[in-house]
UniProtKB/TrEMBL annotation:
Keyword Flavoprotein in annotation: yes
Domain (MnmG N-terminal): residue spans on this chain: 213-256
Protein name: FAD-binding protein
Domain FAD-dependent oxidoreductase 2 FAD-binding residues, every copy: 86-120
Gene3D superfamilies according to UniProt: 3.30.70.2700, FAD/NAD(P)-binding domain
Cited InterPro entries: FAD-binding_protein (IPR028348), FAD-dep_OxRdtase_2_FAD-bd (IPR003953), FAD-depend_C (IPR049516), FAD/NAD-bd_sf (IPR036188), MnmG_N (IPR040131)
Natural source organism: Flavobacterium capsici
Domain (FAD-dependent protein C-terminal): residue spans on this chain: 270-466
Keywords, sorted A to Z: FAD, Flavoprotein, Oxidoreductase
Lineage, top ranks: Bacteria, Pseudomonadati, Bacteroidota, Flavobacteriia, Flavobacteriales
Cofactors demanded by this protein: FAD
Pfam families per the UniProt record, alphabetical: FAD-depend_C (PF21688), FAD_binding_2 (PF00890), GIDA (PF01134)
Length: 519
């Protein structure tokens, strides 16, 4: 019977199945010939000591034991062409996985996406990077696959529902992701590989009788007696259904405004805001791995850091080893940053959002906007940054030490942010309390990560789309909006997820609840 073992090995041993077998044989005092196969179940890096180790959880099959490598397959999806219809607004991970779950349960999803398909989005991403043109419906945030498609493809989640997490990861593998995502402690697909997986999911939805509509914006809800009956599209057409999953993502400000205008209950929600810091990847490797050169067997080092500064949490967010910074505005007249990495994480720079937790009280200057106060606070900073940097997609930038010393940087080197930077004293971008926390916080970061606090690091402002500034409430059991029957707020935009995996899980949860009612 195969046995499970947990142990630590060097990065070189972890990279070789033969050396791994040798280690297992030696550690457990058995002959190498007795080992048929070692399957790594989980792998993580332990860089707490000078000699970096790899934590391995493995299943070992011994000679004579049955071992067959079963491929991960998709469920048997039925054809739902003539089944009852459910509208899904948004083709991000929440919407797409809700659609797959509905099909599995015998219901027909109609997915409505304001943006373009994954291939069509590329032209608009080029336009914002090169020509500084923002398409309000097709950009890094809007379009097939949502914000995650061209924003790294990180699959790590703190969700405790491990069964659900494993199911999502296995579905992604069945749709073409590398099986390594089932093993790594912090799995990652990569922006270059995720689009094909998203396209394959869409093709499966259509093959099974579902419907996917692109470049189609929802502008109104059809509501009668506090029950939803469908949606109105920008061209005036209507689509009817008495179950609607609202999975529009954290940047769909027009949807938040529509809900507010129709007096459908929404709430201001705290979020985090700050800058995106870029270091040379080689410097981060030296800090994290305590070595001059990381070698051939270690990946580019990530980092995660949290500090309490003046009673506020300041922390790294969406850290991208070997990655680049991208322009993520969703409207003209604003600038927004985010980061992503290709699957190999082979760029020479590392970047991370460095953000400060906000409180609802911080939005008091925008109190007249009610539940939209946080959104207006967020938008005001993005617009101010746009103005200060020259009213293009260039972003305000400053060297890290200069920022902490309130000194304008006399020069900004070329960074990975393609539209370019403008030297700005970043204290002009943010409210005073936020600026002071970041100025002190970066110095505290430097005490924990020796070498992090340096003028080699360039701060880009702002990192403002960390999560939705609005929560769309729902019943804890039915997952329906408490006021509108048949409306299911879902995913990041509603405030119930934070990333690809948790959004996908939430999409499935909403689909399951709908099926309970309809079946």
């Amino acid at each position: 019977m195969p046995r499970e073992y947990q142990f630590q090995v060097s990065p070189e041993v972890a990279a070789s199945e033969h050396l791994l077998n040798q280690h297992v044989a030696k550690q457990f005092q058995i002959s190498l010939k007795e080992i048929q196969k070692t399957i790594v179940l989980k792998r993580s890096i332990d860089a707490r000591q000078k000699a970096v180790k790899i934590n391995i959880k493995a299943k070992v099959y011994f000679t004579g034991e049955d071992f067959t490598e079963a491929p991960i397959a998709l469920p048997e999806y039925p054809n739902v062409s003539n089944a009852q219809e459910v509208i899904i607004i948004g083709a991000g991970p929440a919407g797409l996985f809700a659609a797959l779950q509905l099909i599995e349960l015998g219901l027909k999803p109609i997915v409505i996406e304001r943006g373009k398909d994954v291939r069509g989005r590329r032209r608009d991403l080029k336009a914002i990077n090169i020509d500084h043109i923002v398409n309000e419906d097709s950009n890094y945030c809007f379009g097939e696959g949502g914000a995650g498609t061209y924003s790294d493809g990180k699959l790590y989640t703190r969700s405790k529902k491990r069964g659900d997490v494993d199911r999502i990861l296995q579905l992604l593998v069945a749709f073409g992701a590398t099986p390594e995502i089932l093993v790594e402690a912090h799995p990652h697909i990569g922006t270059n590989k995720l689009p094909q997986i998203i396209q394959d999911i869409r093709e499966k939805i259509i093959e099974c009788g579902g419907q996917v509509m692109f470049e189609t914006r929802v502008t109104d809800f059809i509501i009668k007696a506090n029950e939803i009956h469908g949606v109105v599209l920008q061209n005036g057409d209507t689509i009817t259904a008495n179950k609607v999953i609202l999975a529009t993502g954290h940047s769909a400000r027009d949807i938040f405004e529509l809900l507010d205008r129709k007096k459908i209950l929404i709430e201001a929600k705290p979020f985090a805001l700050g800058v995106r810091a870029e270091h040379p990847q080689e410097l981060i490797d030296k800090i994290q791995y305590s070595c001059d050169f990381r070698g051939d067997y270690l990946p580019p080092a990530p980092y995660s850091i949290v500090k309490q500064v003046n009673g506020r949490g300041m922390y790294s967010f969406c850290m991208c080893p070997g990655g680049v910074i991208a322009p993520c505005a969703t409207s003209p007249g604003e600038v927004v940053t985010n980061g992503w990495s290709p699957s190999k994480r082979d760029q020479v720079t590392a970047n991370s959002g460095i953000v400060v937790e906000l409180k609802v009280e911080d939005f008091k200057p925008f109190a007249k906007f009610g539940a939209l106060a946080g959104m207006k606070f967020q938008k005001a900073i993005e617009q101010k940054a746009w103005h200060l940097a020259g009213e293009t997609q260039r972003v305000p930038a400053q060297r890290m030490v200069d920022f902490s010393k309130k000194q304008l940087s006399t020069s900004i080197p070329k960074t990975s942010y393609v539209p370019g930077t403008t030297s700005v004293e970043l204290g002009e971008v943010f409210p005073g309390f936020l600026t002071q926390i970041m100025r002190e916080g970066f110095q505290e970061f430097g005490k924990s990560m020796k070498g992090y606090f340096t003028n080699e690091a360039i701060l880009h402002a702002p990192e403002s789309r960390t999560s939705s500034p609005v929560r769309i409430p729902r019943d804890n059991y039915t997952l329906e909006h408490p006021q509108i029957k048949g409306l299911y707020p879902c995913g990041e935009g509603a405030g119930f997820a934070g990333g690809i995996i948790s959004a996908a899980i939430d999409g499935e949860k909403c689909a399951l609840k709908i099926a309970e009612v309809l079946k």
